[in-house]
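Hi W.,

Here's what went into the run:
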Amino acid sequence: MVNDRLRDIGEFVPSADDDMIICRCEEITKGEIRKAVHDGMFTLTEIRRYLRCGMGLCQGQTCSKHVKNIVAKELGISPAELEPATSRVPMRPIEMRIFANEAKEVRSDE
Amino acid sequence: METRIENHPILGDTKKGKPVTFTYNDMEVQGYEGEPIAAALKAAGIMVHRYTKKEHKPRGIFCAIGRCTDCVMVVDGKPNIRTCVTPLKQGMKVQTQYGVSADTFDKQQRGV
Amino acid sequence: MKRYDLIIVGAGPSGLSAAIEAAKRGMNVIVFDENERPGGQLFKQIHKFFGSKEHKAKVRGFVIGKQLLDEAAETGVKVILNATVIGLYQDKEIVVKIGEAVEHYKGNSIIIATGAAENMVTFPGWTLPGVIGAGAAQTMMNIHGVKPGSKILMLGSGNVGLVVGFQLLQCGCEIAALVDAAPRIGGYGVHAAKLARTGVPFYLSHTIVEAEGDACVTGVTIAEIDSSFNFIPGTEKHFDVDTICMAVGLSPMSQLLKMAGCKMEDNPKRGGQVPICDEYGRTSIPGIFVAGDVSGIEEASSAMIEGRMAGIAAAEYLGYIDENELNKELASLDKALSGLRQGMFAPENRGRLIEKTDEGIAVSDSLLKKGYVADDEIERFPGFTHTKGIHPVMECTQNIPCNPCQDACPKGCIKIGKDITALPAVDDSVSCIGCGMCVASCSGQAIFLVDETYEEGYASITMPYEFFPLPEIGIKGKALGRDGQIVCEAEVINVKSLPAFDKTNLLTIKVPVEYASKARFFKAE
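Here's what came out:
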């Protein structure tokens, strides 16, 4: 039901707090998130890929709950109905240089 | 205002490392070796650690445990150093960070 | 790839407790923690814990942290710090960043004890330097010895907001206001009362309109909200503060479990996304366990018991103990845990308005809305008595799981009984010797010694006092009421600091006898 893309969620209506920063790392505002829903992004994973909110250095630690609530409100559903965004390696920011150290180790094993 | 807690009713005297001098944007600041850079800056009354990339807004300490990365600064020329979990050393060069690189916004624009 | 019987992620209260129990049973245990120091949040907790003896009640959090670390070392638990777990897979493989390397470990069993992350609320100006989390405030003041600010607004009246608020006062900060959008204080009344009697004003049904300042916070405006969370025009209040501290709840850090493929649920009573698990932390994947806040937000005391349960369950899973032993061990822990989960603040009562105590006494309305029991409400509670000579007055008015006062009295004049959430009562037949052990033992700082016949026309009041500078004998000042307002002149007549009091000093003041039931705090002139 969450993924019913034909569902009518109405027009995007501007709101006074649309310029409020939600994702502190990537500086994504409430308005951008709301617009994204009206642009057809109904899941948290899509929103994250589309706007990068939750993909910054803190990895959504602070904003994921807010994003979830904003998207749910826009869709007119309960936040609990939204599947959380995918969790994948690396769970914490890590320098590419260090992440690449693993590749070396694997190669030496072969 | 005295920002260091010298004598605490429960914790007593807080143990500190040896006094060190470091620079914040070329200004000399005193701190204690091994404490987080952010603690020394806070004790010196410095609140702004960086300006954000898009909106150029000031940020400072927020979570203080290395998670939120709001307190990152340019340390010894390297950007994105989490000052709340990076131990202070004698002679460290700590600078305000602009965006995500080690350069000022001015330089970043000219570079493009 | 290295293999261990048990890999634990998180060296906080639950992770360490789990490690100790598993290691005691012969398991080869390794604990990873991304922080520089072990102990999780325990070392930031400088207040005395609640509960009973088996929950380490009246011991301060950081002391419990030290005890856990010692025990972990004795049992041979390996704790690796600055080790950030970046991945967990279904086959119990862990990817961890240690220093400059990314390493892989395999666990025959795994316990995830990653704890929780702080929630935040948004308002114009919430990204300004000077807006911080309550955890940040605790880290700055209790670990690094730096004041988080000078004048602070605390948002959130749960136990975290109240406890951190008090800690801010202890390190010399001023609290301009304690604000919560909820219509009632969320944390223990005794924690609120400690703040209220020093003069901290509470604003319930209020929230932040905006934080002011260009480079950093210079002020804040709050306003009252209606039942649909809309601001009520004309109710704005402004405070000149340099810091806004948010203590608006915690969310389980359960991402690793989701990544591993554990069945998850969104459970608001547990604080958000949590793994589906049984009461001993067994998740949907055999051999992967959880303990502590990651499986549902509670206190550190319950996290430690959950940790022990998960450690024992993991030992049984790998055959280090048999089912009989498992059941025997878990039964006693079950009892300890259910003791903590009783009373008004039990998990199942979250969000519910409780009007009467278990004893059938009407709960103080003023306590829930203003942070203190009103003068005309306090008389109805069983700990509040009037007798000749010195005697304890216990302003403990909610059913919370705590009973150290009962054991503290060498004469046995305080009665709580078997049920540790019962309100304490005074046994009038036993005479108080005025030793003050009960005052110092009360984690909620809710016990006073009152002598209404101290001197002709004067009463003496002994109160717990955990601030510096400690007033000296002979100093004159004002006695403050439970509401933090001046009630009368007062003089310090005794100051007692004994090792047995564990940093809770006993301050005795003399006030005109008619204020004996009102004066509860002292401010030097």
